[in-house]
Amino acid sequence: LFLKLPSDSFKYLGWCDLEERGVRGNQLRCPRVREGPSEEELFFRKEEHTLKRRKPVTDTEKWEKRLQENWENCAELNLSFQDLGDLYQVENFTRILRRLIRVEKLWLVDNSLTDLSAIRLPRCRELNANKNHFTSFKQLPKIPQIQHLSLAENNITTLSGISALRHTPLESLVLKRNPCEFQERYRQLVFSNLPNLKMLDGIPKLPEDCSPPAVRFLYRMCTIL
After folding, report:
1. In degrees, to the nearest 5, what angle opens at C-alpha 134 toward C-alphas 133 and 140?
2. Which residues contact 106 (CB under 8 A, 6 or more apart)?
3. How many domains is the chain partitioned into structurally?
4. pLDDT tens sequence for the chain (225 residues)
5. Helix (H, G, I), strand (E, B) or coil at 45
6. Where does the chain have alpha helices with state H?
7. Residue 118 within any structural domain of the chain
8. Exposed e or buried b for every residue in 182-205, given b needs 16+ CB within 10 A?
9. Cα–Cα dist 14/16, whole Å
10. What is the pTM of this model?
11. Cα-atom radius of gyration of the chain, to the nearest Å?
12. 137 lies in a domain?
């Protein structure tokens, strides 16, 4: 039995389209930035009942909406859980990311992201991209000022490309529950590529993380005279 949920008619609306709201863009914790499908596509999906009737939008209202979605001035922004199921939603989401020229703290958790290599976040100091579909460090955005980076629960299989973060002020890195975590001498390899790193997976840099593999092997040898 199909039951229409109370929020079903709003599932394709952005926050700017909601009536009788007293919230501003800078008050949102996790704004919805993805666009909904066209009326024609909804008709073919047999979801036309989900499209709320809207009044014609004037140029003034379009300009007011653009001012409300002034992403360029965001310093802290949570764009997690966007449920990017269609290509047009991914393209709109990417368009928003390109406008984040001043963002310093950004959360992109659980968005099924695969490649943001074309994105540049020049001021970003803290990036949380947990629970996505990244397979390589080469798919990360350009983050020259990054200090804290979290990539837990992705699908990064190798440490290849991690040296791109070598010339950043990166202090802490989280790679928990990635296949690369099981690579031999995992911590040594990470710290050798990132000499400025102070913490990996929540554990501070230890003396043995700095020792070359050959030296550690000799320490375990016992000489009998």
Report:
1. 140
2. 76, 77, 78, 79, 100, 121, 124, 126, 127, 128
3. 1
4. 445 555 666 666 666 666 666 666 656 666 666 666 777 777 777 766 665 555 676 777 777 776 667 788 888 999 999 888 778 788 889 988 999 999 999 999 999 999 999 999 999 999 999 999 999 999 999 999 999 999 999 999 999 999 999 999 999 999 999 999 999 999 999 999 998 999 999 999 998 888 654 444 444 555 565
5. helix
6. 39-45, 59-68, 87-98, 186-193, 207-210, 213-219
7. yes
8. eeeebbbbbbbbbeebeebbeeeb
9. 5
10. 0.71
11. 23
12. yes
CA-angle at 150, arms to 149 and 151, nearest 5°: 120
CATH number where 139 lies: 3.80.10.10
Q: Which residue has the tokens 């529950």?
A: 177
Residue 7, in any domain of the structure:
no
Residue 155 lies in a domain: yes
Calculate ∠ Cα 46-94-97, nearest 5°.
135
Containing structural domain, residue 127: 23-207
